[in-house]
Amino acid sequence: MKGNKLTPGSNLRWESSRMILPEHREQWLHHQKQQTKQKKPELDPQRWEELEWLLGDAMRNDDPLCFTYWRDGFFFEIIGKCHYINHVQKQFHLVTDDGIEYLRFEELADITYA
Question: What residues contact residue 109 under an 8 Å CB cut-off, 6+ apart?
Fold first, then answer.
């Protein structure tokens, strides 16, 4: 009869030798992270138009905005003011508390007032 640590007859001698190798732990953590990834959102033309109006308003009034963006399966946020929209490089130039950030159009998920 096989038991566990709490029952008589368990093999306590080998219980302390259980371990996980660092490589296995890294692989398991990587797997867990991959499971939480989300699909890239696609903005339709109507939503882009709404965002253009919002950006134009905020740039005229020098209002801060919250930019939600998607990168490698995860969503992030940047709060700052849109200083310039670069249509050639397809990116926003944002002024944040940490300095200047560049956000590519293709990564954008949403924009709201901060």
Answer: 41, 43, 68, 69, 70, 75
> What is the Cα 28 distance to its own chain's centre?
20
pLDDT of residue 59: 95
Residues in the chain: 114
Cα distance between the two ends of the chain: 64
CA distances from 93 to 9, 12, 101 (A): 68, 62, 6
**Please, what is the Cα angle at 105 between 103 and 109, to 5 degrees?**
90
Structure confidence by residue, pLDDT tens digits, 48-62: 999 999 999 999 999
**Residue 60 amino acid letter:** R
How many C-beta neighbours within 10 Å does residue 26 have?
Answer: 10
Residue 15: left (phi > 0), alpha (psi -120 to 50), or beta? alpha
Q: Are 65 and 42 in contact (CB under 8 A)?
A: no
